[in-house]
Specification:
This is Sigma-70 family RNA polymerase sigma factor. It comes from Macrococcus lamae. GO terms for molecular function: DNA-binding transcription factor activity. One of its GO terms (biological process) is DNA-templated transcription initiation. This protein has 163 residues and is mainly alpha-helical. The protein folds into 2 domains: 77 residues, no CATH class; 59 residues, Arc Repressor Mutant, subunit A (Orthogonal Bundle). The protein is 66% helix and 0% strand. Helix 2 packs across helix 3, helix 5 packs across helix 7 and helix 6 packs across helix 7. It is rod-shaped and about 75 Å long. It starts with a helix and ends in an 8-residue tail after the last helix.
Length: 163
């Protein structure tokens, strides 16, 4: 029975996902929608709702909306660090990161601090670096603090406050 429902309502799932512009986790949302479709098929009672297509559409639509809300709430609650870019703008005359590399800024940093610096220059955030490296965000923050201290001490840079 589910295979029939899947064939019949698969385009509807795609339509809903595209309508809400889900691109990043498209496959995951699609799988969740298929599971929800199976649940709808198990609980559907034609005596209570005569228009099956509209019933399925509304159930899937509101399920996707609820799932998006859950994910947004989860991200807001479990966001470890604010969404600011790690490498702050430096108060220096040239304000270019390329020259920092050319002058050998990373030579004074240990491997971990250099790893943080390289990711930060590219624009990654603390939680992303933590995920890439398999370390905790507090460890990444420690690398950042030590790297900043060395850069400030050795190259007379000052980092803007709050970053």
């Amino acid at each position: 029975m589910f295979e029939e429902w899947k064939v019949k309502y698969e385009r509807m799932i795609y339509h809903i996902l595209h309508h809400y512009q889900i691109k990043y986790d498209f496959d995951e949302y699609y799988q969740l929608a298929l599971i929800k479709l199976w649940q709808i098929g198990e609980t559907y009672d034609p005596a209570k709702c005569t228009n099956k297509d509209q019933f399925v559409y509304l159930k899937l639509k509101f399920f996707i909306i609820d799932e998006m809300r859950k994910r947004i709430k989860y991200q807001q609650r479990h966001q470890i660090v604010a969404d600011d870019v790690l490498i702050p703008l430096m108060d220096c005359e040239d304000n270019t990161y390329a020259e920092l590399f050319l002058e050998g800024v990373t030579d004074d940093l240990n491997d971990e601090e250099r790893l943080w610096f390289n990711y930060a220059v590219i624009g990654y955030k603390i939680n992303e670096i933590a995920e890439f490296t398999g370390n905790s965000p507090s460890t990444i923050k420690r690398w950042r603090r030590r790297a900043r201290e060395k850069i400030c001490k050795n190259y007379n840079f000052t980092f803007k406050s709050g970053l």
